[in-house]
Amino acid sequence: MPGMFQIASQSREHVVGCAKIKWSGGRCAADAWIARAGAGYAQRKFVGAGPDQTLGQNAGAGFSQDRNLHRQQLLLLQQQHAQSRAGDATRRRRRQQAGLPRHLVTISGSGIDWHDVESYFRPKAIGSYSFDENNNVVFNKLDKLFDVAIMMDCSQCPVHPTLKSVFTEFAKKNSEIVRAKGAKPVFLMSCAYADKPEMMAQLAEAYTIAGNANNALVIPAGLAFAKALDKQPEISLYAADKRHPSLAGTYLAACVVFAALTGRSPVGNAHLAGLDGKTVAFLQNIAWDTVQEYYGK
Predict the structure, then answer these.
(1) Residue 70: which pLDDT band, with cuts at 50, 70 and 90?
(2) For residues 191, 197, 201 and 202, what is the CA-based torsion angle, rounded to 10 degrees?
(3) Dist. CA 205–CA 19, nearest whole Å
(4) Average pLDDT of the chain, as a whole number
(5) Residues 243, 164: Cα–Cα separation, whole Å
(6) 137 strand-pairing partners
């Protein structure tokens, strides 16, 4: 099956002045970061709905729904960032609602350089079989192994004094591997630690630069966390370790991924994931607003 996500050419402008943004209540103001960054911050947006259309283009036309996204195979490469069964159920439900098959390759406490991305695309390995509702092994016949690979580094690695160069190196290396295998690279922007909100502006800049440099879509999950905490700091988005997301944080991230990949609003989705309706509505709106703002709509 031909890949749906064809990358168009993109401006190489980068964000500027992130260190000078204002902070609200001790937390990163996502709106202030976007405003300060100016035209160069804008990441890709959907400009078409067919298999030959671009996944995104800087400063292009507005969103339009990719009607064939349900046919895509997604590969998610990340550190172990959400550990609860409830969180996994939320991500799975979002994926099912979007019609997105996916395989998750997780190394606990890892960095982007720990993943042997080349090996994930070898035949008769990842995705070659699965289990049905009766726990029977089902052997899958795939026309194409993966269409999209979503990658993220450890939360602080892209801005760590020693590891940030590793992020830059492997964002490029892994993007080239993914593209050489006929898939499209995507980066999932991580959030700041709960007790270190100053990380967010740096993370936003690092991921945006990496996305622009490698013609890769960036999913602005971290900026959604910052926006939510600015508006309603009483909502707990973090687990007790202040690094991993709570159920609410996982739900928010899932909404951002859904909105970024499909161009569709999560607002009004009926799945509550065990959260109350008011919280769900707030998180859905935050996710949609963040995605639209980050892609410059």
Answers:
(1) very low
(2) -80
(3) 10
(4) 75
(5) 18
(6) 131
